[in-house]
Amino acid sequence: MINKVILLGNLGKDPDTRFTATGKAVTRFSLATSNTWVNGNGEKQQATEWHSVVVWGKQGEACGQFLEKGRQVYVEGELRHRSFENKEGKEQHVTEIVAQKVRFLGGGNGKAKEEQPPQVDPDGDDIPF
By CB atoms within 10 Å of each CB, which of 17, 19, 62, 75 scores lowest? Predict the structure, then answer.
């Protein structure tokens, strides 16, 4: 069986990085992907989907350090569904992409950050460009 998601989109807001009790980084960000088509009346239509992305370890640290709202990224990962109880005691359901590979592409809002991030694989090893 295969559970693989590939997305190419733009960050909806700056990423949020936190650390577990053992010091492992976990970064979360929202990613927008868009689809454009022409409807039956010849009118151009566009739909945007929002995805929640989670990145762990050194790759998560790099995402927190170098990504910003509007930045274009390529994400490969697995689709995960989980449930939890919220503060009001109600069960919440979440669908998210647990990223195994993140590639930083274009700059946010048309500008590239001056410092280029290292590309990190899921095992934490640097990948040469």
Answer: 19
